[in-house]
Sequence to fold (179 residues):
Amino acid sequence: MRWEDIDEQIATKVRGQQFACRRGCAWCCHQLIVLTHWDDGRQILDAARERMTAEEFEAFVERLRAQSREIHELGHEAAEARRWTCPLLKEGECVVYDVRPVACRSVFSPDADTCRAMMETDDFDTLTPEQQATATAIGERAFSLQIAVNDQRPVDGPVELRELLVRLIDAGDYRRPSG
Ligand code: SF4
Ligand code: SF4
Fold:
């Protein structure tokens, strides 16, 4: 499936609803991301390598490895309770926006302030009742949109983004820079 088709399918399902989401808004980019279709990871790495300088890419891989190691040590469930600033963010913007994971494309919020509040607390109970309701709706919507897309594609298996990218890098399984 092409990204255009995936975006169109998602857009059809959320049509008519008002969201605050826009490129460059990144309060939602501080959590674990699970991919089930590993070619998405190859595309992300290709794009990151193309768009970063050699030094930036090296620093990115270092951040990936550090986070991946820490998540592995904590275990996925415990790690989910913490904030993990996505290594693909550069100056507050996703470097690979056009090929970002389905999980990222499926997150829609009517209110960026709620996303900010969610990012700034580790305790769901500190959110207002309205924020809690919004947060729950964001999660449920994202889950159902992801399932709808991923059900139509071959499933390689669920792997957290950072772990998958490290695996692909170690296997040399992406388009490497020439020269
Ligand atoms: S989900 Fe929230 S943080 Fe993410 S783009 Fe939308 S409004 Fe911004
Ligand atoms: S891949 Fe891009 S959109 Fe997804 S969490 Fe990372 S920076 Fe945000």
Observations:
- The radius of gyration is 16 Å.
- Residues 3-171 form one domain.
- The chain has one domain: 3-171.
